[in-house]
């Protein structure tokens, strides 16, 4: 019997993405799977039911029909505990699941004996890059964050020479040079701004400069393992903040993107720094979902503090739902294909990608 793959409509507030596109649907069917998708699951991302039907999927009327007895359920945001309780016992669940962030969700996965693959747990290896949902979605988030900043800023980004005089380009600082930050640097540069990038990892200098940005060196290095930053000491943080506070007085726009996986976002821009910025300056805090890099950030809100606009948008990747879904769905297909062998469901626990991402964790054989 063919492996049944199910996709239900996302129910998280504001979520427009979908874990399957017509493109990846064709690939799953070519691999011998039976694909079922809830009606209108892809509509908000720009994929009508007719496109899925043409790709060979079965369109079903509700979530239970789509994923209730599916061997593999695909999702973007984690399903509710109630939805998890109705999944097939012993089935596979793949998505950005964050099981340890919600005890009820984690308990529901265990109680249903699901083989869950939270894709945020994938190791940062070359082979895993094609499955790296965090990177693909961070790229869209960085792009959208700069567009929000440009919309909120009371100034042009590029230099303009007009009959009314010359307009100087905006000075834009991108805090954090991960995937989101690098995309933000590239986007701000395309818009004509004078762009700087700041990251405590010195190895990011070359990446920032390759995109046309200037590396902001505050004299503090926090190079860590696996391409992530380590936590700064109290002394290092104090020196970093002193130098950053002085620099922010000259900046027009700040886009914050710094994050440490599994931890609250580091506080980099203090309330005192915001108070020292020029009126009309803008801060867009992409890290708002994990508490924000700015002390003034209110997740999901755009506020004004002493003439400085501080925005804390949530789920930015969903704002670019079509391309974000295309990238996410390809990531998911590349991972799920590891489970499909000759049209049947199979687990190779010697495969590092499966063994290190499965939840609950399994003892080595």
UniProtKB/TrEMBL annotation:
UniProt KW keywords: NAD, NADP, Nucleotide-binding, Translocase
Top-level enzyme category: translocase
UniProt entry tagged with the keyword Membrane: no
Residue ranges occupied by any Alanine dehydrogenase/pyridine nucleotide transhydrogenase N-terminal domain in the UniProt entry: 6-141
Domain Alanine dehydrogenase/pyridine nucleotide transhydrogenase NAD(H)-binding intervals: 150-312
Any Pfam family the entry gives: AlaDh_PNT_N
Organism this protein belongs to: Noviluteimonas caseinilytica
The keyword NAD is assigned to this record: yes
Catalytic activity: NAD(+) + NADPH + H(+)(in) = NADH + NADP(+) + H(+)(out)
Enzyme Commission code(s) on record: 7.1.1.1
Function: The transhydrogenation between NADH and NADP is coupled to respiration and ATP hydrolysis and functions as a proton pump across the membrane.
PANTHER family: NAD(P) TRANSHYDROGENASE, PROTON-TRANSLOCATING NAD(P)(+) TRANSHYDROGENASE
This protein's name: proton-translocating NAD(P)(+) transhydrogenase
Transmembrane segment boundaries: none
Record family assignment: Belongs to the AlaDH/PNT family.
InterPro entries noted in UniProt: Ala_DH/PNT_CS2, AlaDH/PNT_N, AlaDH/PNT_NAD(H)-bd, NAD(P)-bd_dom_sf
